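Researcher: Structure for this, please.
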Amino acid sequence: MTAPTGDAEVQDGMAGLAPDHFLHMLAVSLGTDGDAVTGTAPVRPELFAPGTSRIRTALLLTMVDLVAGHTPDAPLAPTVDIRVQVHAPNPTSGTILLRCRPLRVGSRMVVSETELLAGETGVPFARAVSTFLRMALGPGAAHGPRPVPSMPAPSFDAFLGPRIVDDRRLELDPHPRLDNGHVGTIQGGVQSFLAELAAEHALGHGRRLAASDLDIRYLSRVAAGPLAATVEPVPAVGGAVPA
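Model: Predicted structure, token format:
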């Protein structure tokens, strides 16, 4: 698949993904603005934690991963780490705008900062810092608008479909719509999503929790399934373990 850029045509690195792939469902459109890579994504109810109007932080992280995984000149890969901090309520309609600028461009790694803004007001509500290796693993996502496909599930939670193993552990089987085909692993945003859901499962006791700070580091590929997320509660100040 190719996408037009001016008078030229460029390959779209997402074209080989399954039609119902996790990344396609986010419908993130890429562009550039000077030295910044930009992205826009529609705010749709499926992004929300069920029963709330709060966008899952791991979905914001995945949007950042798509945008920050490119410089204005070329795609980057793979992701080393991403940290997303949410500091204000997310938009509940309209679009999300992402603006990514490099903080440091080295011969082997690129560190970038991404600001997430409510599209209707331009008010920032989250920020992220990410690190990528500079490796040529094929074309990145093509720039330009993307269609907004219909979701095959009522929420991204249901789309992911993890299973409960015990009170601190969730598991997820590999699936073509959740993979990162060019490096043979489960897509990094899916991995962070499972971690967020596992934390809510272990600490929420049936309640919906808001992840305001999601810090993910990727150490290796997920060569075989299932992917498991096991929660170890960390004592708070004073030694109390979260109830």
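Researcher: Any notable elements?
Model: The first strand starts at residue 2 and ends at 5. The chain has four helices and 14 strands.
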